[in-house]
């Protein structure tokens, strides 16, 4: 048997050995149903790959807005930037928040090189998710006569309206 003929057999044997090791480790750590795996799964239960976005992490980058507590007051239009976060060893991959406008607004979101725009009604929740590289959001009041406010919190689901 030449060396060229044995190569596929060696690769198949290595794959079979890896499969046996994976099966043995799986049976050893979790072979007793959910109760058998609970010990090591609980250690990873508190691991969060996403964190909440605090209003203090939104930095005004243009327009006319004021941040006060969990409230953003906008006169006309406002651009807010979220800076880069996490480090080389951080497990947090995203930051998320939900904003609720008190009056109709237009939202333009730029994240990871992609931008999207949407009109959002009063009281509707705006779910925002930013990756490690951050991003920017621009809020524009649709009612020109008064400043509008957007709060950090839970709003109603208006996706089907």
Describe it.
With 161 residues, the protein is α+β, with helices and mostly antiparallel strands. The protein folds into 2 domains: 43 residues; 103 residues, Jelly Rolls, CATH 2.60.120. Helices cover 25% and strands 41% of the residues. The chain has 2 helices and 9 strands, in the order H-H-E-E-E-E-E-E-E-E-E. Strands 1, 2, 3, 4, 5, 6, 7, 8 and 9 form a 9-stranded mixed β-sheet that branches. The longest helix is centred in the N-terminal third of the chain and has 28 residues. The radius of gyration is 25 Å and the shape is elongated. The model has no long low-confidence stretch (mean pLDDT 82).
Keywords:
alpha+beta, 161 residues, Jelly Rolls, 2 domains, 9-stranded mixed sheet
In a few lines, what is going on in this structure?
The protein is an alpha+beta fold.
Helix fraction?
25-40%
- The CATH level-2 architecture of the largest domain is identified as Sandwich
Number of strands: 9
Number of helices: 2
What sort of overall outline do the alpha carbons produce when their principal axes are compared?
Answer: elongated
Name of the CATH first level of the largest domain: Mainly Beta
Structural class: alpha+beta
Q: Unreliable segments (pLDDT under 50, ≥5 consecutive)?
A: none
Largest sheet: 9 strands, mixed
Total number of domains: 2
**What is the first-to-last residue Cα distance?**
70 Å
Q: What would the average pLDDT be, to the nearest integer?
A: 82
Q: Nearest-angstrom radius of gyration? A: 25 Å
Pattern of helices and strands: HHEEEEEEEEE
Beta strand %? 35-45%
CATH topology of the largest domain: Jelly Rolls
């Amino acid at each position: 048997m030449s060396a060229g003929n044995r190569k596929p057999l060696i690769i198949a044997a290595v794959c079979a050995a890896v499969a046996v090791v994976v099966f043995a480790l799986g049976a050893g750590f979790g072979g007793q149903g959910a109760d058998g795996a609970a010990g090591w799964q609980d250690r990873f239960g508190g691991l969060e790959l996403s964190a909440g976005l605090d209003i203090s992490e939104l930095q005004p980058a243009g327009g006319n807005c004021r941040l006060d507590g969990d409230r953003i007051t906008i006169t006309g239009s406002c651009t807010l930037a979220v800076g880069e976060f996490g480090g080389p060893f951080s497990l947090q991959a995203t930051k998320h928040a939900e904003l609720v406008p008190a009056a109709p607004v237009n939202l333009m979101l730029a994240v990871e090189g992609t931008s999207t725009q949407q009109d959002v009604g009063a009281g509707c929740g705006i779910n925002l998710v930013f990756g490690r590289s951050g991003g920017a959001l621009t809020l524009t009041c649709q009612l020109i006569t008064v400043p509008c406010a957007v709060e950090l919190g839970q709003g109603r689901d208006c996706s089907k309206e």
